[in-house]
What we know:
Blueprint: H1 6-22, E1 48-49, E2 62-63, H2 67-92, H3 103-122, H4 138-159, H5 163-189
Antiparallel strand pairs: 1-2
Helix pairs in contact: 2-4, 3-4, 4-5
Amino acid sequence: MVKTSFISNFIRLNIEMARSNNALVPDRDKYNHLESDPWSWPLLIYPMRLLGSWNKGDVKYYEIGNPLIWWASALMCLLYPLQLAYYYVRKTRGIPGGWAPGEELHFWNAGKLLWGGWVMHYLPFFAMGRVTYIHHYLPALYFAILLLAFEVDHLCRRSVPGASLQSIVVAACAVCAIAGFCWFAPLTFGYAGSITDLKYRQWLPTWNIYKDKYSM
């Protein structure tokens, strides 16, 4: 039996995977309702139909997620660097931050982990030449949602007076999240009825839940 090196096999496997992935080049001159560019993922501009047939009686799945959570998490990911800059300027100018003991260090450590995870799982797709789909954003979305929950807790503690009011704010956020989940659940878990029943779930003109501006 020929002995092989794990390291060399690992490197060669990743080289071959990268080569095969880069060969999947999108055709920019041809419309494809499945493909989407990385810049559009945080904005949820182009969700994806998971089945070609969209007729009544066929089970239809739509890769869309919860738009309320999706957009809120994207907003927090974009605002977090500005938030860091704001706190840094206040600190360098000697303005009291009003931090509880250990709170500033916890904000920095937890925030950089979550925001860094989002960046590391999202930005590399801009350097890829291969065709991309919205589900490529899901690992980054995981960190974005965690950052959203972290920021809601942080902002409530610093900006909302009183534990009772803080609980109300958190409960309101939870209600919005659950409502969004329930509203789009038929598309997530599969819908066999007429898609016209779900036409009011098409919030953006780029979503092709009910209508597609291009021929399928």
